[in-house]
Design goal:
It is built from 13 helices and 19 strands. By secondary structure, the chain is of the alpha/beta class. A 7-stranded mixed beta sheet has the order 4-10-9-8-7-5-6, with helices on both faces. Strands 13-14-17-16 form a 4-stranded antiparallel beta sheet. A two-stranded antiparallel sheet has the order 1-2. The chain has 2 domains: about 15-45 and about 300-450, Aspartate Aminotransferase, domain 1 (Alpha-Beta Complex); about 50-300, Aspartate Aminotransferase, domain 2 (3-Layer(aba) Sandwich), CATH 3.40.640. Bound molecules: pyridoxal-5'-phosphate. The site of pyridoxal-5'-phosphate (PLP) has 14 residues, from helix 3. Pyridoxal-5'-phosphate binds near residues 103, 104, 129, 226 and 474.
Length: about 475
């Protein structure tokens, strides 16, 4: 007897995505369905999120301080979002949920309110969002660990050897790497941190969209996430965690809404969450994020994760068979990970590869160093001398091409057909190279189709072409 397979939750009506069938032009003529393999940078909106936002717009008004009926409705929706986020990560009853712009904002907020003298411990392979904010208060970067076991050992030894003083300690690390997808064993890390008097902050930008999070069970003290990676690209994120540090001292941002009373001489700050939400909040963004959290919870994050893991296994097998495919990882191949793969195709520059995939095959991936320069230098085996040379040249104002890689990432709605499209395209590129001409553009120093006959879509808003590849993200 054959077992009936449960229908896939990916691609189900509940998890439908806006723009899933968008067609894009190819340089060689015609169009094809856009193959989105760039979820890790930013994910499309859930239709449920889009519909809720549209509905709320008719009721949109200022929150908290308005007596008008629309203000009451908007305030209820805003506070409902806070509750949805709290549930999504299974925070402790007393944890605060602060609405921010994104993960970067959340971690900077945390860095801005840490108690005086906090020792921060961080591994060097983090995304810049969880690497740089700590620099202004002093941080100890630990070397990128070869295995999870080594990571736990090093963490334990480092925390044990910290000077015995009453100053607090904070361990700040990622839930899932945006370069390797490897998931960090958060419950074990929290155990080690707590046993040695430290608190744990988790950068969940890449974890939250792809795997269940349980702050209460795992002992995560603080957690940061971004709505635009969680199928709610409306400009909000969140910082969730213990109240005491967030509710002491001056807030990170000062201004209206964060106070109880102000005189020219004195300011009485409000309690959380208002204390850390100065200025008019992004009501639409918060509600979008809340609806995404509720929708994903209804779908079941265990199931979302299991289906993505199965698709990732398929992708690893298919792509490994492509001649010249080189995949990067730090930890053993069998270590659990979220659905992304960072790779190079031997014999072709990573930015040219990304340009060819987009222009000739309609496939969107990410390329570069993924805002994780120290980790990428290690994975690409860039020597210390070469890293120093790159630093010196860049400091001197010379335009240096950095080493880099390509990254494909999966999400809701990703399918075997998407993976096949990438594997077939890579095979064709490995065999025959590009079918179009490309040149390094002056503004970006990166490969672009030359000429590029693809028209931008005729949308109703003003559009100004911007050199892509400008700056770096994700
Ligand atoms: C692991 C990780 N942390 C932090 C961030 C920063 O997220 P945001 O740009 O939404 O602030 C990213 C973005 O790619 C990320 O991948």
């Amino acid at each position: 007897m054959t077992a009936t397979r449960e229908p896939s939750i990916h691609g189900s009506d509940l998890l439908r995505l806006v723009g899933a069938d968008t067609k894009v032009p190819l340089v060689t003529g015609g169009t094809r369905r856009y193959v989105n393999l760039d979820y890790a940078a930013s994910a499309p909106a859930l239709e449920a999120v889009h519909d809720a936002v549209e509905e709320l717009l008719g009721w949109y008004s200022s929150v908290h301080r308005g007596a008008g009926f629309k203000s009451r409705a908007s305030t209820a929706a805003y506070e409902g979002a806070r509750e949805a986020i709290h549930r999504f990560v299974n925070a402790r009853d007393d944890d605060a949920v602060i609405i921010t712009r994104n993960t970067t904002d959340s971690i900077n907020l945390m860095a801005g309110v840490l108690p005086e003298g906090t020792h921060v411990i961080c591994f060097a392979g983090e995304h810049h969002a969880n690497l740089l904010p700590w620099k202004r208060i002093g941080v100890r970067y630990l070397p990128i660990p070869e295995t999870p076991e080594e990571m736990l050992d090093v963490l334990e030894t480092t925390l044990r050897d910290l000077p015995h003083c009453p100053d607090p300690h904070l361990v700040a690390l990622t839930g899932a790497s945006n370069v390797t997808g490897e998931m960090w064993p958060l419950a074990d890390i929290a155990r080690v941190a707590h046993a040695n008097g430290a608190r744990l902050l988790v950068d969940a930008a890449q974890l939250a969209p792809h795997a269940p999070i349980d702050m209460a069970r795992d002992g995560i003290d603080y957690l940061a996430l971004s709505g635009h990676k969680l199928y709610a690209p409306y400009g909000a994120g969140a910082l969730i965690g213990e109240r005491d540090w967030l509710n002491a001292g001056d807030p990170f941002l000062r201004g209206g809404g964060a106070v109880k009373l102000v005189t020219v001489d004195e300011t009485l700050w409000a309690e959380l969450p208002d204390r850390q939400e100065a200025g008019s909040p992004n009501v639409i963004g918060a509600v979008a994020l809340g609806v995404a959290c509720d929708t994903l919870r209804e779908a079941g994050m265990e199931r979302v994760h299991a289906e993505e893991a199965a698709l990732l296994t398929y992708a690893r097998e298919r792509l490994a068979a492509v001649e010249g495919f080189e995949h990067y990882r730090i930890w053993p191949a069998e270590h659990p990970r979220v659905g992304l793969l960072t790779f190079n195709l031997r014999g072709i520059q990573y930015d040219l590869l990304a340009a060819v995939l987009s222009a000739e095959y309609g496939i969107g991936i990410r390329h570069g160093c993924f805002c994780a320069h120290p980790l990428m230098m290690r994975l690409l085996r860039v020597s210390d001398e070469e890293a120093t040379r790159l630093l010196d040249e860049t400091r001197a104002g010379h335009h240096e091409r950095l080493p880099g890689a390509a990254r494909m990432s999966l999400g809701l709605g990703s399918s075997r057909a998407d993976v096949d499209a990438l594997a077939d395209a890579l095979t064709a590129i490995a065999e025959h190279g590009p079918r179009w001409t490309y040149a390094v553009a002056d503004e970006t120093d990166e490969y672009e189709p030359n000429p590029d006959p693809r028209p931008l879509p005729a949308l109703r808003m003003r559009m100004v072409e911007h050199p892509h590849g400008h700056g770096e993200s994700a």
